[in-house]
Amino acid sequence: MYARSKIKEADNDKHNKAGCRYSVSKHPTHVAVIGAGISGLMAIRHLVKAGLKVSCFEQNSCIGGLWNFQPLEQLVDIRKPHVEPATALYKNLRTNFPLPFMTIPDSVGYPENTPLYPLWQTVQQYLEDYASHYQLLPHIRFQTRVTDIAKITGKQPWQVSWSKDGKDQKECFDKVVICNGHNSKPVIPKIAGLETFKGLVTHSLFYREPEPFKNQNVAILGISNSGEDLSLDLSQTAKHVYLCGRTATGRSAVSDRGGLPYGPRNNITQHPEIISASGKTLVLKDGTTLKDVDTLLLTTGYNHGFPFFPDLSAVGLKAGDRFLSPLYIDTFHADDSSLAFIGLPAYTAIFWLAWYQSIWIAKVFSNQLTLPDKAARNYAVRWQIAQCQALGLEERHYQVYKERQFPMLQRVARMAGESLPNAKAESCLLQSFQHRVDYPDNFRDIPFATIPPLKDLGLR
């Protein structure tokens, strides 16, 4: 606690040139956290634990982020004007990672007999229980949309502008942590003649349930996790589901079915990528066609979306193809360590990554740890890019961890000064990947090797 200043409060409040209020006396570090999903909750938990003042901005009325279900009144054709929801959660979603990797190390845990791959409702309740247990809610400003984050001159270098109940306000902060996820700005691929397609064109961001697609021929473009999951969900009601895209490689979660029908109703088939559309016909990369297609569902992923940074270059950042740079170990702005990101990488055990990143950030912001100097941080950025290039990765996969996620988790844990996930954890993770390849239709319902308790996986 800082001693109360003898200067009268009315005289102690000053304004900097940006119009933000600050105190001329010494003040506790004030951190703005953007988003109250899993990453935001982890940030609040560890920043507060480190003795910092925290204000979290959440545009929705509750916590959860991705795990907060938002129903849609009607189907959305992306070629027409529309409003993008804050989450892509659909009614039948179950986790892709087994329970240990969906667990926060210092939580009270899930209820007994929770399935290895729980439904989204279980995860949402788990997050609500965690926030309640650690009293995180008082630090969150709900239904508050951040409209702008700007770097300014003054004692507190970050100005955050937000809107709530039709009123615009702004406040200055010492540090900012971005936790708004990476599933809000859908990637729409270029498909010749897409505007002439007579069926519905939508994206997985807008998918909620299979019932509206009853007796339809549905083509899905994108053959990774979302494509495979939604093809199985749609197969319950659709006449036929055409799953289109690159078949199984090191970057695909599914197996090549050789063109044979599969799925619960034996009505799913795999096909090459879609290159053009006309009427209700889709032309594929190998020259074959899919006819009488009623709906084209794009499961083509997401770009990073930062609507509160209208000009990323103004804060020294650059957005490439699903790649934000320069970030030191995908966490700290390499040139300005007062700005940090949690949960930016895709295809990783986000509960564990967010845990380690938030501890690291809290320790740095509270001066318990010191980062390397700017030159060293930028060298590390260039080295990480070179490593990705050496693996033959395209830029859009630089922050997609997949096979690299375990060494990246260990790297962040080491930087945070925390115990590292061990060989048992890595083995468990690899087993879960192989289990999905072996049983792509129903891997969530088929038991595999016994999973050790969390305490045996190296996390405290």
UniProtKB/TrEMBL annotation:
Give the EC number: 1.14.13.84
Q: What's one Pfam family here?
A: FMO-like
Q: Which family does it belong to?
A: Belongs to the FMO family.
Q: Does the keyword Metal-binding apply?
A: no
What protein am I looking at? 4-hydroxyacetophenone monooxygenase
Give UniProt keywords alphabetically.
FAD, Flavoprotein, Monooxygenase, NADP, Oxidoreductase
The molecular function terms in GO held by this entry are:
4-hydroxyacetophenone monooxygenase activity; flavin adenine dinucleotide binding; N,N-dimethylaniline monooxygenase activity; NADP binding
Q: Which domain of life is it from?
A: Bacteria
Keyword flag Flavoprotein? yes
Primary enzyme class: oxidoreductase
